[in-house]
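User: Please predict the structure of the protein below. I'd like the answer in structure-token form so I can feed it into my own downstream comparison script.

Assistant: Understood. Taking the following sequence of 466 residues as input:
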Amino acid sequence: MNLGRLWLPAVVLAAQLGLLALFVVDWRLPVVLTAGFLIGAILLDRPVWAVGGMLAARLLSTGTTSFFTIGKISIGLFEPVLLVALIALGLRAVFAGMTLWRPWPWQPVFLAIMGWNVVGLAWCTKMSDGAKEIVTLGVILATSSVILAFLRTWDDVKMAVWAWIGACVGIGVLALFGDAFGLTDYGSQWQASSSGGRETGLGQQPNWFAMNLMFVVHTCAAFALVQKRAVLRWGLLLATLFIFFSMMTSGSRGGAYSIVIGGMLVALGQPLFRKWFMRFAVVGTLFFGLAAAGDLGDIGKGLNRISSNVDVLFTRDIRGLNWAACIGMFRDSNMLGIGPGGYIDNLQKYSDWLYHSVYRYPHGIMWGQIAHGGLVGVGLLVALVVVITRMAAHTIRDTRGTEAEVLAWAMPASMAGYFAWSFVEFSLDEKPFWEWLAVYTALHLVAKRAREPGGTPIPKWTFSLK
């Protein structure tokens, strides 16, 4: 008997026994591992697909899709996909002699933010909570590194944008059919939607559901303007409307304002953008009025909430109490901040009612930095905004007259809307802002190389939609 021929069946048998053992623990584990192996084998040959899959998984992954937790870290759809992508892309980098660690404009500031969080462990309230924050930032760094390592051409960036648009359309479709068949009723999980009229998507808090869809709205519309094929052009414009109104079913006032703020910034970019922004605004206003007046299901309820509650965004005491607590933590820590994590543990000192409510988080990235990072953390956040703004200005300059110019304007417009919204919601490590920023940074690097001697130029923008 030739024992050398038995090694492959032995490996297969061992793998099957291992998967069977995992099936006893949790049936989802062997399914995820098997799918991950197959996907990883494919991605070794198509690494850019790994990036697209990772972006889609990030958008689709919610708290309700978590399989289990490790400590206080939830493991859901995104984490296994990220792991598979890292392994596949790491092997690809080794085989192709690629460098995974590439410098990018906001990298030093982000590393400084991570470093300040590590230093903050010396005085943080609870070491485990602080370590979780640092691990989360580490995941952001790993994800960004993978995106920037493999989105190297204009075609790669376009693929990432297509993947993002497809994922957002998929989320809208799943929410629509899930509601129709009673499969995705998560209203009872969130107090904000327990009374009805606020879509939770795949189980996210309504404001977070709106944020996930918000980023791609301007880019989807802008991307349509440089499509030479009519079917793609009008398909993208319809996708823009679908994603926008799926987002509006959340009833998120901040989401609506961020779209308007970003849209105005896009309109500054070019006369054609302004023309289509006005057309989109007219269509949106008409649909808004019809849906609100006719009470057309969730979209009507969501829009009615936005229009009838404009005046209560700042007047309720929930945000004010949290902001006052953040200032108190900043003051009482001698402007050092309380360190990473520990906000809830410190909150009872400033508001016992808020401590025992479901609203116990800073309600804003800047406020969170004031409480956790202190003066240094706020300074680093401002530095991050400055670096991103300068990067956007350079990208717009480098893409002028090319078909990438629409993305150079539209993608930071979404970030500007998010930045305005972030003063009343979200935290520093919020998904999917960092993935969006990484894709835009890839565009920045592609445009920069295109202007260098020997660089591959981005196609000229010769298409004009009247």
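That's the full token string. Residues 341 and 441 are 29 Å apart (CA to CA).
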